Structure formats: structure tokens, C-alpha cells
Amino acid sequence: MKYSSIRGMRAAPVAIEARMRKLIPLTFLAVVVALPLQARGKNESYISYDDGGTIVRTADDGRESDARVNLPVFPGDEVITNRRGRAEVRLADGNVLGIDRASAIRLRSVLDSYDGEANDTVLELRYGKIAVYRSGDATESLRLDTHSASYFAGREAVFSVDADAQGRDRVSVFDGSIEVRTPSRTSRVRAGESANVDDRGLYDLVSDDRYSADDFERWFLKRAERYGNTNSRYRFSIGARKFVNDWNAHGPAHHCAVGVGRIADKIEKLGQLLGMETVRVC
């Protein structure tokens, strides 16, 4: 084991050893308590935001209940917002749905959900508008169905779909790209593009210089800044999973401290002044 000391302070091996003996049972207890919580959250979809007035209609008996934050939702359930409120659902596979006012979406299947054996996540937008954050950590494609088309996101992406009563959709992509499939043809929409869609295919494709996000999309994009981490507003350029793996490979002694701004250069200079090795993971 490698030790370091600070000038002017004397080490106390006996005291340190005694303290470590006391900490070991506490550390073990913390790990035992944390594991069930992590396992539960990984395989459960739940309401993560609600303005009020949202209803969850269960698949088993059609019973309706008022939505609330942390309320579990399951494959087959339908989430319905009223004219005044929005809602957000975090899926068991890591993907996130934003549901605009006066909208309804059904969770036809959810990957990694303990209440089912689905091989992928399939959503049905019955009416209204939703925004989707397709997580970069998800292992399978996400599919969103409307009356007119199916929207596939195979990699990390942020997009919205607005379905009207006449069987026409409006799709906008803010990050990544998605595939749009209709009975007539298949097209791809990329970041900064939006288009109209009906059962004949995609048309009126425009770039972002002619399109701006509406209030709902801006709300969802703001919330998307913290997706990938449930406690803090930061994202990783290499993805959360790879960051954690690469970071742990260097043997950190603690978790992390969140700072505002880009100060990696300053931290590296501080490390040089202190004679400490610093590593930039991403």
C-alpha cells in the first residue's frame, strides 16, 4: 500500500488501524442496504415528473389512478395528461419520455422491466405530443408507433412527435437521428431537422434554420441536460457507463465533486503544483 503525508503532521498507525476496524462493518452495511435499492430502480418504470391531473390507466383491469412522482408504471399501462399538465416517465431501460398536455401514451412493452419478458421497448402515442430521450446506455432500439408511422431510435437521440386527429404527425430531432417507417417508405431524420409524416411517408423536411422548439420541447430539452445521472445536472461525452468504467480503472479514492464551468485545466495545474498525478477521463 502506498501512503502520503503532509509536512507538520505525524502519522498514527495504531489509531488509523482502530478506526478502519470500526469503519469496515459500516461499509459492509452500506453496501448491503444499497444493493436492493439499486436493483429495484434498475428494473422499474415510474413517473418522474407531474404537473397534476395526469391519470394512469392500468392494463390489467382498466382502473384509473391519479399519477404522482415515483408512482410505478408497467407494460400495458396508459399515461394520460390533461389540458393543464405535463408528465415525465423514466423507463426501466433508461429511456425517458416527456408527455405534453392533453396527450396519451401506452407502454406496450418495456425492455428490462421485471414485469415482463420484452425484447425491446415499444410505445404507442394515441394522441397528442411526446418527447423522447433515447439513452446511450440502452441496449436495444426504442420504437414509437402512431396511426401513421413507426419511429425507431437505435442510438442516443432526443426527438419529439406530435400526432393530430387526422392521422398526420410532426417529427423533430434535436440530437442524434431516428428512422421513420411508413407503409410506403422508410426515411431518416437527423439532428436539426423536422418534417411532416403521414401514411404515405415523410414530406416538408426542413432544417433548424426554419424551425424552433416550442415551449414543451424547450421544457424537455432543459430537463434532458441532466439525463444520464439521476442526481446531478451533468452529462458525459463518452456516456455514463464508459465514464464510470474508465474512471474506476484509475482507482479513485472517493466518488466525485460537481463543479460549475470548465476547470479541468486548472485542476491539472493544481496537481502539478502539489506533485499529484491527475487524469482526465473525458
Q: What does this entry look like structurally?
A:
A hairpin with a 2-residue loop joins strand 16 (193-198) and strand 17 (201-207). The chain has 3 domains: 12-42; 43-224, Sandwich (Jelly Rolls); 240-274, no CATH class. The chain is globular. The chain starts with 12 loop residues before the first helix and ends in an 8-residue tail after the last helix. It is built from 4 helices and 17 strands. The chain has a 17-stranded mixed sheet that branches. The protein is an alpha+beta fold.
Query: Main beta sheet, described?
Result: 17 strands, mixed
CATH class of the largest domain: Mainly Beta
Q: How helix-rich are the residues, as a percent range?
A: 10-25%
CATH topology of the largest domain: Jelly Rolls
Distance N terminus to C terminus?
28 Å
Overall structural class, as computed from helix and strand content, comes to: alpha+beta
H-E order: HEEEEEEEEEEEEEEEEEHHH
Number of domain units = 3
| Secondary structure: number of strands | 17
> Cα-atom Rg, whole angstroms?
23 Å
Range of strand content: 25-35%
CATH architecture of the largest domain: Sandwich
Tally of helical runs: 4
Tertiary shape: globular
Low-confidence stretches: 1-42, 229-233
What's the pLDDT, averaged over the residues?
A: 80
